[in-house]
Amino acid sequence: MIKYTVIDGIAHVSWDMQDYPMNVMNDLSMEAFRVNMEQAIADTTVKGIIISSEKDSFFAGADLKWLQGILNNLDVKKQFENQKNLQEMFRKFETCGKPIVACINGHALGGGYEITLLAHYRIAINNPKTKIGLPEAKIGLFPGAGGTQRLPRMIGIEAAAPILLEGKELSPADALKAGLVNELVNTKEELIAKATEWINAHPKSMQLWDIEKKGQIVYNDAFKIPNGAVQSPKGAMLMMPGTALMMDKTKGNYPAQIAIMKCVYEGLQVTLEQGLIIEARYFVQLLSRPEPKGMIRTLFVAMGEANKGIARPKNVPATNIKKVGILGAGFMGAGIAYVTAMAGMEVVLKDVTMEGAEKGKDYSRDLCTKGISKGKTTKEKADALLNLIKTTDNVKDLEGCDLVIEAVFENRELKYKVTQETEAVIPSSAVFGSNTSTLPITGLAEASVRPENFIGIHFFSPVDKMPLVEVIMGKKTSDYALALTIDYIVKIRKTPIVVNDSRGFYTSRCFGTYTSEGIEMVAEGTHPQLVENAGTMAGMPVGSLDVADAVAIDLAYKVMKQQEADTNEPIESIPSGKVVKKFVEELGRYGKKNQKGFYEYPANGKKYLWEGLSELYPVKAEQPTLEYLKKRILHRQAIEAVKCLEEGVLKNATDGDIGSILAWGFAPYTGGIFSYIDAIGLATFVKELDELANAHGERFRPTQKLREMAEGGKTFFN
After folding, report:
1. pLDDT over 80 (residue 34)
2. Parallel, antiparallel, or unpaired: how do β-strands 2-7 and 169-170 relate?
3. How far is CA 507 from each of CA 138, 404, 437, 457, rounded to the nearest angstrom?
4. 53 close to 15: Cβ distance less than 8 angstroms
5. Where along the chain do its domains lie?
């Protein structure tokens, strides 16, 4: 686990965890670290210590599965003692009197970077792909091994804030500028040589905040925080607006950020030892909350498995996708072409006309130009990418494609037509994927002569930025088609979830409830601005009316009309259907696309809510509370997700959580839509759904199976 050697009086404590791709923090690794460090400190012939790694990276932070075990079986008292012991161990090392140098040869993240903070000097190899920082805030936690106390003391409160609060990760060059490392080198040999040189030049070392008294290194009570202490005028100017900005950004939904601010505010006004105890208390408090449990489970463990293709059928050999055809060079098709070429595959971008196809390729040209200007790519790489995209208006150019993705308008007849003309020229082994957001795949596959090779591949806009792809299985879709599709998605570095066929599938069906519920609130007389505020305060990216405009009200109308035609359910009986029908048929307000929707879009100003809403739907004198509206917004989406799981549209709750966050931005702090329900508790959730159903309609009514789960004390995740 750790390789220990002494060379010329310098102890080399080098991490090399077997059976782990990267070095990580857990009980075993920290015990090994303690034993080896104490050996070096006790050895009177050792004059200094170099902490390094035998792997390509330095240290990746906490072992997340180990951390999950702690969260799932949390003993608060025991964990507090564990945190204190860890803090005391690190403090003992940094005050040992011997110079300690951390040699960062690759990623140093989370607990890994906190290990380097106990060193007196940090040297990193200048590899731009290396990331250095404290990303714990991204999983609902904060650096609990001294990070909130040492980093601000080292570089100041203002400089430390984005690294702690945002989980910002820096390249070695940027880390040097920010003060996270002291020196850069180019090779591992140079790394060790420089560390040795520094130790020889600094035989007695201590931290900036320490002082030697009576032969012992202790905290210096006269130490000044760089660029201003908490209670200084500069510190007050940072903490007060900083807290306000943090609350505005997080809406108070992310307890980790609040805890970080408390650790910094309280801990930097006392000694380091006292500050570390404060940090340990807040850290254990945070562990007892549901947010980190859900975020770690979904955003790291589950998403990591999904990105590796866990849903791929194991019985199908790996496929080698070399050529991909894309039908339709509109915004969606153009984005798919770009990410496909980015992954090194040949692309045939077909549209009705060459002019349309070239316009679609312009999307890639523009992104390449921006990438060159920002230094993210080179002209040579951009030219190579663009050369992979062939534009055409001739279906015969699709010959030889391993995969074809149809991204034409959401019209069943048009999709039938392009399916049939394409299948006439592509190989029988090729998979045909439809990028539809609502139309059932089994129905679309009726146009195919090879329905076993027909599958749904639902991208999200803009394709180059949105990480999720929803894969939809038709009734006849084969394992081979699924395997090839997942191989393709992994290759373009997106996250796949696999669902079964239904109208709206999973993501569109649940996402639609967010916009429709907001519209229903307005129709009931809730103030539109209150509706929008409730959405963002609940943790959604933007308000529901804003989303409705951006997606296009007339598109929602077309989907509803198709549903009406297929099911004989009148559009007026569909939630928000009356409003949508009025906006499209009577008012001609289609949303952002024609600058008229729930918002007005002036040519030279910011958008604002349309005043006519209050005339159409008068605002009631008595308004619901913000908390009530937040609950209504989130519960409505959640019960729809439950129905998707019970109906077999979703295969498991894990995919539901991943899809809810990545597809439509369901409150990420919850860990996803099913983690949200578990955090509330199923009994409470069912009770509140019944109350909402009695007040607003049967769409909120809990299912019988959900009632049974609640009565049995069950959860979606063990």
Report:
1. yes
2. unpaired
3. 23, 22, 8, 12
4. yes
5. 2-282, 323-502, 508-711
What pLDDT, on a 0 to 100 scale, did the predictor assign at position 276? 97
Residue 691 pLDDT exceeds 90: yes
Cβ neighbours for 318, distance < 8 A, ≥ 6 positions apart: 487
Contact 477, 493 (CB under 8 A): no
Q: What is the mean pLDDT of residues 467-472?
A: 97
pLDDT of residue 94: 97
The pLDDT, as a whole number, for residue 533 is 97
Alpha carbon distance 604, 631 (integer Å): 36
Q: Is 566 helix (H, G, I), strand (E, B) or coil?
A: helix
Classify domain 323-502 by CATH number.
3.40.50.720
The rounded distance, in Å, linking the Cα atoms of 456 and 176 is: 47
Residue 563 confidence class, pLDDT cut points 50, 70, 90:
confident
DSSP letter for each residue of 85-126: HHHHHHHHHHTSSS-EEEEE-S-EETHHHHHHHTSSEEEEE-
**Residue 310 per-residue DSSP state:** T
Q: Using one digit for the tens of pLDDT, what is the confidence trace for 184-201?
A: 999 999 999 999 999 999
3-state secondary structure 60-80: CCECHHHHHHHHHCCCHHHHH
Residue 611: count of CB within 10 angstroms of its CB: 8
Catalytic hit among 12, 120, 458, 527: 458
Q: How far is 170 from 151, CA to CA, in rounded Å? A: 14
Question: CA-to-CA distance for 411 and 497, rounded, in angstroms?
Answer: 24
For the stretch 419-454, pLDDT in tens is 999 999 999 999 999 998 878 999 999 999 999 999
Cα(145)–Cα(265) distance, integer angstroms: 17
Rounded (5°) CA angle 569-570-573: 95
Q: Residues 127, 157: contact at Cβ < 8 Å?
A: no
- 181 with 172: CB under 8 angstroms? yes
**Over the stretch 283-325, which tens digit does the pLDDT of each residue have?**
999 999 999 999 999 998 999 999 999 999 999 999 999 999 9
Q: How many residues are given for the chain?
A: 718
CA dist 75 and 62 (Å) reads 18
Structure tokens at 601: 């879009």
359 pLDDT above the threshold of 90: yes
Q: What is the CA radius of gyration of the chain?
A: 29
Identify whether 696 is a catalytic site residue: no
Distances in Å between the Cα of 594 and the Cα atoms of 104, 513, 584, 602 are 54, 23, 11, 11
Phi/psi for 405 (5° steps) reads: -115, 120
Question: Quick one: how far is CA 338 from the chain centroid?
Answer: 22
Band of pLDDT at residue 565, cut at 50, 70 and 90: confident
- pTM higher than the cut 0.85: yes
CATH topology of domain 508-711: N-(1-d-carboxylethyl)-l-norvaline Dehydrogenase; domain 2 (1.10.1040)
CATH for 2-282, options being 3.40.50.970, 3.10.280.10, 3.90.226.10, 3.40.50.1380: 3.90.226.10
pLDDT at 172: 97
Instruction: For residue 590, give the DSSP letter.
Output: -
Cα 592 off chain centre by: 27
Indicate if the pLDDT at residue 182 is higher than 90.
yes
CA dist 25 → 33, 110, 420, 476 (Å): 10, 9, 55, 46
What whole-number distance in Å separates Cα of residue 313 and Cα of residue 479? 6
Identity of residue 106: G
